[in-house]
Design a protein that fits this description.
alpha+beta; Alpha-Beta Plaits; 3 domains; 9-stranded mixed beta sheet; 4-stranded antiparallel beta sheet; isomerase
Length: 228
């Protein structure tokens, strides 16, 4: 098994992050510094920053309805609340499909490092759906602009799926994952975003979860996640 896949399957991090750790010289295999692309066996001793990591025998998968003012990270130097803190589990958990500090809604949390490749890798082109409430009435020409793509940070976005819900409210679905993308898309068109909530990732939905609540994925949802 490739080392980056082994690390991902321990639940420590994604394959991409594992490669970064290997390049930084933070990974050893049987007391020797690891190299990108090497293979390992289950009995090999793999350590990251001196701590051994082992293959998981049980993976956990959750959906959290993330509140505003919560961080999608495993640590925060300012002491802000973390999304993973909402989950009652002893497993080393990570968030997948990050939401910014002021955005609420669906976030996937798991100790399975392969979730990144199933859900977040750009080649998957998996749509994520949001409800945005903005500062003024939404014009039809701006809906068309979003559907064709707008330029943010010097690069045009991929076409979005957009539906107007009310005068100042729309549903928008994108498959890209650029930083604060929807906020920037709407701000480029002259709208201030009053609230933003993610309601769907692929076929995974919040269901009846209230803000701050979470649930474990059922068997069908886990199969769907792994099929992506």
């Amino acid at each position: 098994m490739r080392l980056n896949k082994f690390i991902a399957e321990t639940g420590f991090c994604s394959r991409r992050k594992a490669d970064e750790l290997i390049n930084e010289g933070r990974v050893t295999v049987n007391k020797h510094e690891a190299i990108i692309g090497m293979d390992v066996k289950p009995e090999d001793v793999v350590k990251i920053d001196g701590e051994r990591v082992k293959l998981n025998t049980r993976y956990e998968y959750y959906i959290l309805n993330k509140p505003k003012r919560v961080i999608c990270s495993n640590e925060d130097k300012f002491g802000r609340r973390l999304a993973v803190d909402f989950i009652k589990s002893r497993a080393r958990l990570f968030t997948y499909g990050r939401l910014d500090f002021m955005t609420e809604g669906l976030i996937i949390i798991s100790n399975d490092g392969e979730v990144y490749n199933h859900v977040m890798h750009p080649r998957k082109k998996l749509y994520k759906s949001y409800i945005a409430k903005v500062s003024r009435e939404i014009e039809d020409k701006d809906i068309e602009a979003l559907q064709h793509g707008v330029v943010i940070d010097g690069k045009r976005t991929a076409p979005a799926k957009v539906k107007k819900i009310d005068k100042k409210e729309l549903r928008i679905a994108i498959f890209e994952g650029r930083n604060r993308q929807i906020r920037k898309m709407l701000e480029t068109l002259g709208y201030n975003v009053n609230s933003l909530k993610r309601i769907k990732v692929g076929e995974l939905t919040l269901g009846n979860l209230q803000v701050g609540e979470y649930r474990a994925l059922n068997e069908d949802e886990i199969k769907y996640l792994k099929s992506l």
